[in-house]
Amino acid sequence: MEKLDWKNLPFGYLKTDYNVRCFHKDGKWGKPEVSESEYIDIHIAATGLHYGQEAFEGLKAYMGKDGKIRLFRWEENAKRLLQSADGIKMAQVPVDLFREAIMKAINLNRKFVPPYGSGATLYIRPLLYGSGAEVGVKPAAEYTFIVFVTPVGPYFKEGIKPVNMLICRDVDRAAPFGTGSFKVGGNYAASMRAIIEAKNGGYSSTIFLDAKEKKYIDECGPANF
Length: 225
Known about the structure:
alpha+beta; 8-stranded antiparallel beta sheet; 4 helices
């Protein structure tokens, strides 16, 4: 492991040693498996590629002053993944499996947890997608759940300070009765035009207004409003 400049880490991806994978087949989840590979084998007709059956979470592990690693409300992330999976008809990841996978990924990559006081954290990315092959528009019969981790700096380079946001009026982040309330990849794809416009204009990110009346704040670019 190369020596990392913990205080100047970007918010991006750095390779760590291990990730955790689990597969849903024949109506049930298998046991978590540990992998050293950054890559996945995926069927060319996987529903995650063609029909957007994909959801993810993002949470962080913090090194305490006492040398203990702590998470913030991981149970809420597990619940939200359950909601997202149900919203686009994927196999749901049980809370116990979610916990086992994230804890295993953290412990296996403990040396990548940034030290206390560095301002950096270990970002945890649980990912769920339809890996079963379908050509007709219908839910997959098989699903893959992966947890990988990477050390990151602050999401906004300015740190914990006010940032300038572009109020976007010509792109809708979500539609009434759509998938906007679920943490699925398609929502992020839909926001990229506005995010690029904001970055080009010198803003840190975007604020999206409600699609119906354009009166209320609906969400912001990083989807954490």
